[in-house]
UniProtKB/TrEMBL annotation:
One of its GO terms (molecular function) is protein tyrosine phosphatase activity. Residues 2-143 form the Phosphotyrosine protein phosphatase I domain. Keywords: Hydrolase, Protein phosphatase. It comes from the Bacteria. This is Protein tyrosine phosphatase.
Length: 146
């Protein structure tokens, strides 16, 4: 099992959802699972709509605190999965030494497009985002088991 880091913009919606799902799906398998944001200046809790979307899946992210991406946290065996191609481009540009580790989540699992930011939208959009991430992370876990 690889270590995983999910990256989005503010680390309050998409990446904490992805982190929560991955930890839940991993069960008791050993791996480091993190989520980070590229534009985090102050620690903040997970967005309440993200928390509600995950509550519907019986997964709690209510204790999440946002953290800024820090390349010092990257392990030798870590895969960095971004929510959008813009996040991927940003990380590869600013941290070229990580180029081989950085991929968009959806392309890595054979899906197309980006995981769009639900921030500021209604609960239904957060629920759809959580469902999209659940599908993608299920595919990710299948890859690791194969």
């Amino acid at each position: 099992m690889k270590d995983l880091m999910f990256v989005c913009t503010g680390n309050t919606c998409r990446s904490p959802i992805a982190e929560g799902l991955a930890k839940h799906m991993l069960g008791n398998k050993k791996a480091i699972i993190l989520s980070r944001g590229i534009s985090v200046n102050l620690e903040a809790p997970a967005n309440m709509n993200a928390v509600k979307a995950m509550d519907k899946k019986h997964i709690s992210i209510k204790d999440h605190k946002s953290k800024r991406f820090n390349p010092k946290e990257i392990t030798d065996d870590m895969l960095i999965l971004t929510m959008t191609s813009r996040h991927e481009t940003y990380l590869k540009y600013h941290y070229p030494m990580l180029e081989d580790k950085v991929h968009t989540l959806l392309s890595y699992v054979g899906m197309t497009g980006d995981v769009e930011d639900p921030f500021g939208l209604d609960q239904e959009v957060y629920d759809q985002c959580a469902n999209q991430l659940e599908t993608a992370i299920s595919k990710l876990m299948e890859q690791f088991e194969a």
